[in-house]
Amino acid sequence: MRALAHIAAFAIIIMVGYLLMTKGYHSFLIQMRSPLLAQLMTFVCLGFTAMAMIWATRKIP
Questions:
Q1: Model confidence at 30: pLDDT above 80
Q2: What is the rounded average pLDDT of the residues 41-59?
């Protein structure tokens, strides 16, 4: 069960990373009008997602 959770968490991180790079970056760029801030927000969101997935898989008994 725990191995499947790790596989699912890795897949979610990959999927979120793809969506952030294809859709999120452009949305952040339009809203903030600064490429540096858009990249920063993209990486912060990806880092938050990765940390949430790690935290969630550690909570599995």
A1: yes
A2: 93
